[in-house]
Specification:
By secondary structure, the protein is an all-alpha fold. The protein is built from 30 helices and no strands. The chain is globular and about 85 Å long. The relative contact order is 0.07.
């Protein structure tokens, strides 16, 4: 009887309280997160989603994807509609998405959401592992609160709701996974766990370069918690750290010598390094502000860099930054686990921001997705101070009477965050709302007006689109993107003279922009000026050799002129760069049929049908031709 009671008590404590109960709460939080992010599921492609996914032929077939890994960075123009060779894991995920549902955005958003939930669960298990391994604390409360706070924070909408930022989600997932198995490596001195941890680190690096901070974070974790700030002790475990530093060095060598540099190689207009460094402490304050009070969030912050150290916000922010570093240094001399947690958390926050907030300048001073992983550190530090201020006693349970005020405030915060997150996702679910929000915060943001015009044109509101493009061009008359999109609106309205005028201006402003030549060729083709159209299509292919649309339209041009062999050649090239190009297969079938080759025609029609099995027009054509061949 006594043994049975002990077994029941063991199950109650170790299985229910420590495992099933927190997991049930975590799963409940996951369901809430899914509900909050539902408004983004059907959101269309925006901003970099368009060139990097929608117009990127290299995610459409495995041979093209593999081929894309073999080139280094060439001209900026070449990189626009192509895979980023430094992030193969990210683009492989886009490739899998495309194979699953083509360019239907719902599956892309669903994968982002699943990755966010995966990061949340990993964060829970990682913090639980740290607390149980280092301090032998069996409470699930702290890891549960950190994970839920992370998952529900409104700032995460900018990473989860924007498909192109999947690189941050993948990098964070593999980063935390590597950290988790590194702890097992230290505990069990296991080569197997070391291999798993290293593999996850490599996958994180191949998702996004910001993962390069992991070796330093692992060393600081070991030094702070395992070695108890004793350098001589950490030397005994150097063999577990060396492989991570070796991978990091090899990665940096690969980036520098093969890809061509260490910074943001795809950035079209980089901020001057001296100005970038000068302004980063003030950006650090902005990151802290939006993490603590999530207001003034938007997709694309346009912050003009200050040029003098003697501006108030510059010297004040530098003072704050140096003060924060001094605080971290002082915490080294304060004994106790709380000082260690706060010190490690603050270092985590600063180190995670270092690759994008130091000497690697990029196009924007501030981008919200940069604090996706970094924000965990600040969250843990603030949560630790929260527990100290309210004197929460976890041994009595988070919901105990003694902890009532603290738990009430915390859950009130979660409710507020949930409301703000849902509102953020409503904004991300509608590009018009998204870009109008940016223009309200930054009235001189030329690209925001251009993208607002594009959002209006995508929903057929052409008059408002033209107004937005004109607003962008008033701010910057040489903005090729707005001029090109304005031409596209005129093209949709069949105002061909106005459209041609826009495309010709883009050719002057940005001679390497292939799409302007392509769309001008469409107009000449509609006007039966086949010579000019052919020349422009060939110019498009010269600038972008992977444009399946250009090959197809050139084939269509030859098809219209009954130049069947040339039409077949270019339809075939279109298919090579887009294996699911149903219209190219169908038109090849039509050409063969006109050439009296019914067997080959049927073959191409069947290939078209395999791309879209429920396409009624193609199915009827296949059935009709089969009956014709059988009769």
């Amino acid at each position: 009887m006594k043994n049975l009671e002990e077994l029941i008590q063991f199950i109650k404590v170790n299985i229910f309280r420590q495992t099933l109960y927190p997991l049930a709460l975590l799963c409940g939080g996951a369901i809430l997160v899914v509900l909050l992010y539902l408004p983004t599921i059907r959101a269309p492609f925006i901003l970099d989603d368009l060139p990097k996914i929608a117009d990127n032929s290299e995610i459409r077939s495995l041979p093209l994807f593999i081929k894309s890994l073999g080139y280094s960075y060439g001209t900026i123009q070449y990189n626009i509609n192509h895979n980023d060779p430094s992030r193969p894991m990210t683009y492989f995920s886009y490739f899998l998405n495309y194979q699953l549902r083509g360019l239907r955005t719902g599956t892309y958003h669903a994968v982002n959401l699943l990755l966010h939930l995966g990061v949340t669960f990993l964060l829970f298990f990682l913090i639980r592992k740290i607390s149980s391994s280092v301090y032998k604390i069996s409470s699930e409360t702290i890891p549960l609160l950190v994970a839920i706070l992370f998952a529900l924070h409104p700032v995460q909408a900018s990473t989860v709701g924007y498909i192109f930022r999947r690189s941050d989600l993948l990098a964070a997932f593999f980063y935390l996974l590597s950290f988790y198995f590194f702890i097992y490596t230290i505990e069990r001195k296991s080569r197997f766990f070391l291999t798993v941890s290293l593999s996850a680190f490599i996958l994180s690096l191949l998702s996004k370069q910001s993962a390069l901070t992991l070796p330093l974070i692992l060393w600081i974790y070991d030094f702070t918690f395992i070695a108890d700030r004793n350098l001589s002790e950490i030397k005994a475990r150097a063999r577990f750290h060396r492989p991570f530093w070796l991978v990091l060095v090899l990665y940096l060598v690969w980036r520098y010598f093969y890809l061509g540099g260490l910074g943001d190689l795809e950035a079209m207009e980089r901020i001057k390094p001296s100005l970038y460094i000068l302004n980063q402490p003030s950006i650090l304050l902005k990151y802290i502000q939006i993490l603590m009070v999530p207001k003034f969030l938007c997709l694309d912050h346009l912050i003009i860099p200050e040029t003098s150290f003697f501006e108030f916000k510059i010297w004040f922010s530098w003072g704050f930054f140096l003060g924060l570093l001094f605080l971290i240094f002082l915490l080294t001399f304060i004994k106790g686990w709380k000082s260690k947690v706060v010190q490690f958390s603050l270092l985590w926050f600063l180190i995670q921001l270092a690759p994008t907030s130091s000497f690697f300048p990029t196009t924007r001073l501030m981008v919200e997705n940069r604090i996706y992983l970094a924000g965990i550190g600040l969250g843990v530090a603030v949560l630790s101070l929260f527990f100290v201020l309210f004197k929460l006693d976890l041994k009595k349970g988070f919901f105990a009477k003694e902890n009532f005020m603290g738990s009430l405030l915390f859950f009130s915060l979660l409710i507020l965050f949930s409301i703000f997150t849902y509102r953020r996702n409503v904004v991300y679910g509608n590009p018009v709302y998204l870009w109008r929000e940016v223009t309200k915060l930054y009235p001189h943001h030329t690209l925001a007006y251009s993208h607002l015009g594009l959002a209006y044109s995508m929903r057929g509101d052409y008059n408002k689109a033209l107004v937005s493009f004109d607003q962008a061009l008033q701010l910057d008359p040489h903005l090729g993107e707005a001029t090109y999109n304005k031409g596209n609106v005129y093209l949709e309205q069949e105002s061909y003279d106005n459209a041609l005028g826009c495309y010709k201006k883009v050719m002057e402003l940005e001679p390497q922009f292939a799409r302007s030549y392509h769309n001008a060729a469409l107009i000449y083709a509609r006007r039966k000026n086949f010579v000019e159209a052919e020349a422009l299509y060939r110019k498009t292919i010269q600038l972008d050799p992977t444009s399946s649309e250009a090959y197809y339209n050139l084939g269509l041009l030859y098809h219209t002129q009954n130049r069947y062999n040339e039409a077949l050649e270019y339809y075939e090239k279109a298919i090579q760069h887009n294996p699911k190009f149903i219209q190219a297969y169908y038109n090849m079938g039509a050409v063969y049929y006109q050439m009296k080759d019914a067997i080959r025609a049927l073959e191409k029609f069947e290939q078209a049908l395999s791309c879209e099995p429920y396409n009624r027009i193609v199915r009827e054509r296949v059935l009709s031709l089969r009956r014709q061949l059988q009769s």
